[in-house]
Amino acid sequence: MREEQELAYQMHDFCIEFFISNALFVATKLNIADYLAIKPMTADDLAILTQSNSRSLYRLLRALASIEIFEEDHFKRFHLTPKANLLRESIPYGMKRSTIMFDGDEYTLWGKLMQALETGEQVSETLYGVPFWKHLKHNENDFQNMRLSLKEHSIAFCSHIPQVYDFNQFEHIIDVGCNDGTFMAFILANAMSAKGTLFDEPHVIEEAKKHLAMCEKSIRERCSFEAGNFLEAVPAGGDCYTLKSALVDWNEEDGVKIISNIRKQMKPGCKLLIIQSVLPELNKPHLGTQIDLLYLLCDNGKERTEEEFKNILTKAGLKFSKIIQTGYPLFDIVEAFL
Q1: Locate the O-methyltransferase C-terminal domain: which residues (predicted)?
Q2: How confident is the model at residue 104 (pLDDT cuts 50, 70, 90)?
Q3: Which of 8, 83, 111, 298 has a CA 20 to 30 Å removed from the CA of 259?
């Protein structure tokens, strides 16, 4: 009976997890952690700063304090905690943009999960009237939140790079689907003799140029930019091609096309590194299995198992080499060669 009670408590926690995620979203949108970084404040103080109802805000903060997001003292002042510190702007390993990604639209999407299971279709297109990524491009706030969220995860992951993979073996690294260039900047900071090329759509490359302009001169001087569509072609000349958080957005047919375009430019000795989650087989817990449901809702992409990676690489004409676990839950490295 006690075991059943414990399981019931766990199931209860699962059922109300979205209460917490919604509360986190609202507190982050209101910049509560940024205000508390200045000094401890009461709900009345914070209500003035956030233009909120103080009684309602107190109840929100109390709920989050119960799970150590904030801490309330005997004077009803709320304090920053190590967890809440991650919700501040521009903090190493920060999670602010990830918490407010899609500006609340993600909750509307999750409400369509039953429809996705019934139809097997992209519910995001039904919801927005256009494919998800097209919707994102036309909504500047959502696009920036997504871009900055990816950057947060890149920064957290990139601290693991020197320990898990040696990029010094390469002379020219081409990052296909580069986002803002954060990943490449970290690589070049650790592979001092390598040069890099950032490749993505034109509007993304403009963001990458802005980011790299703030990097050290030794990194800027070794980095070039090229705009294009990886479904059509990719730049030549690399002895290492990287696909970080890019393949996951595409179905198998398009994934094979992307990797085939890379394979056409690869020479003997060249490597392809696919950097994203590798799902475990059977019932092992893994964050990627949950994130995969978001791709079910948003677009044609998916997280993949080792066997699925091997299959897509074989169809594209490449050989699977190995999987390097990075210690970061969202990213493994799948290495392939000609």
Answers
A1: 110-318
A2: low
A3: 298
